[in-house]
């Protein structure tokens, strides 16, 4: 799986329905927290967890393999005047605890930076895919130590470059550059094989490629029989293990959000509805876009949507925002007989309904992270499938 999941920051600001939640405090003013570091989860899996932490200066990066003990692995990037830290480590992909890539974004119109380690962050080597001046995001993802994808976006300059490597990042080939009519180019791509990929997060259509991203077609997924055609649908990010994958679709019904888990075993050539989970919350689309049309905006909704994240194609997490200690955290296991959901009132989480920014990142069936931002972000971790949450850092210096 190549989870190139982070979106350009310009797009993140617009995607209130799916990855950012704007709210006010009880007195009608925005809640703010302005002191202390701001952690962000770059990688979360059973074998490796990577946290970027922004303080008063530049970002530091910490690695863990047990969810508890973190050590700093911040790359130091050479410059014309010696060495200096990169100020924003934005995305990362690790195929093992020792072998990984990390992307840095600097301000002032500087190109992004891509660093590679094969010893768990002790040493780093700079790689040079095609840069985009003034980059607002760069997404990186690898299926194995050799095969990977890099997506660079500079929204202000209308530049988007999708690149592919087959030698671990030593050399890169441009697959697509600023082709807005062939897939939603500003969305992070997820590739299940070197040729098959998907773009869908937060959109009312899902896209698929069979030629490594050169051309894209709209993906048609089965709609649950109980869902009328008039109900709005928003597609989330698929997760793959080889050719096996799951793509969740959120259907907005009058009194609930129905989350359909569509699965494939042949890389997306065919799909079947595996299971349905229901969240009791009222959300409606307040804007629509024609199927198959890509623009920089995404549909807006009347209330925050539940957040969905996966640790594997068969195990999913759902977060329904709410007041302090009452956000509903649901874990969903997909099996031959359908879905097995477990729900928890989330002890330890602050109010997520009023957060200015909210993220959910699943690591495995027991571990997940929730980022709650009100001026600065605080990341909370669970080790018991969502029943209790504690803030990070644990022993991050």
Q: Can you give keywords for this protein?
A:
397 residues, mainly beta, Methylamine Dehydrogenase, Chain H, five-stranded antiparallel sheet, 1 helix, disordered N terminus
Structural features, described:
The chain is mainly β and 397 residues long. The protein has a single domain (2-391), classed as Peptidase/esterase 'gauge' domain (Methylamine Dehydrogenase, Chain H), CATH 2.130.10.150. It is built from one helix and 32 strands. The strands form eight sheets. It has a five-stranded antiparallel β-sheet, with no helix packed on it. The longest helix is centred in the first third of the chain and has 6 residues, at 9-14. It is globular, with a radius of gyration of 20 Å. The chain starts with a strand and ends in a 6-residue tail after the last strand.
Strand-helix topology:
Blueprint: E1 2-3, H1 9-14, E2 38-44, E3 49-54, E4 59-64, E5 71-72, E6 76-79, E7 82-85, E8 89-94, E9 100-104, E10 113-117, E11 125-127, E12 137-142, E13 148-154, E14 159-165, E15 173-177, E16 190-191, E17 197-199, E18 206-209, E19 217-219, E20 232-235, E21 239-241, E22 244-252, E23 257-264, E24 272-279, E25 307-312, E26 315-320, E27 328-335, E28 338-345, E29 357-362, E30 368-374, E31 376-382, E32 390-391
Antiparallel strand pairs: 1-16, 2-3, 3-4, 4-5, 6-7, 8-9, 9-10, 10-11, 12-13, 13-14, 14-15, 16-17, 17-18, 18-19, 20-22, 21-22, 22-23, 23-24, 25-26, 26-27, 27-28, 29-30, 30-31, 31-32
């Amino acid at each position: 799986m190549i989870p190139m999941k982070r979106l350009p920051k310009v797009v993140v600001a617009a995607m209130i329905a799916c990855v950012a939640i704007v709210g006010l405090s009880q007195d009608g003013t925005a809640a703010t927290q302005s002191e202390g570091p701001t952690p962000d989860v770059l990688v979360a899996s059973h074998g490796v967890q990577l946290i970027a932490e922004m303080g008063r200066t530049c970002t530091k990066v910490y690695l863990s393999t047990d969810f508890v003990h973190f050590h700093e692995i911040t790359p130091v990037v050479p410059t014309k005047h010696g060495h200096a830290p990169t100020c924003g480590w934005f995305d990362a992909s690790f195929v093992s605890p020792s072998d990984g890539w990390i992307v840095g974004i600097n301000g002032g119109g500087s190109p992004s930076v891509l660093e590679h380690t094969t010893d768990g962050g002790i040493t780093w080597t700079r790689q040079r895919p095609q840069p985009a001046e003034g980059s607002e995001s760069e997404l990186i993802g690898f299926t194995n130590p050799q095969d990977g994808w890099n997506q660079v976006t500079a929204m202000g300059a209308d530049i988007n470059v999708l690149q592919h490597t087959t030698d671990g990042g030593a050399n890169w080939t441009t697959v697509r550059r600023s082709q807005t009519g062939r897939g939603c180019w500003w969305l992070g791509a997820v590739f299940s094989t070197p040729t098959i990929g998907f773009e869908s997060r937060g959109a009312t259509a899902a896209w698929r490629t069979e030629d490594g991203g050169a051309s894209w077609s709209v993906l048609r997924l089965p709609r649950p029989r109980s869902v009328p055609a008039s109900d709005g649908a928003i597609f989330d990010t698929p997760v793959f293990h080889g050719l096996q994958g799951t793509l969740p679709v959120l259907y907005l019904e009058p009194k609930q959000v129905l989350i359909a888990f569509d699965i494939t075993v042949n890389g997306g050539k065919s799909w079947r509805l595996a299971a349905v989970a229901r969240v009791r919350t009222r959300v409606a689309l307040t804007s629509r876009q024609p199927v198959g049309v890509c623009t920089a905006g995404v549909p807006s909704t009347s209330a925050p949507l539940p957040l969905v994240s996966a640790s594997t194609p068969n195990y999913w997490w759902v977060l329904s925002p709410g007041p302090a200690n009452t956000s509903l955290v649901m874990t969903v296991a997909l099996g031959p007989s359908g879905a097995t959901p477990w729900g928890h009132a989330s002890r330890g989480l602050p109010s997520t309904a009023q957060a200015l920014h909210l993220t959910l990142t699943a690591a495995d069936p027991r571990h997940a992270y929730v980022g709650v931002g009100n001026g600065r972000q605080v990341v909370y971790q669970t080790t018991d499938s969502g029943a209790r949450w504690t803030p990070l850092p644990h022993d991050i210096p």
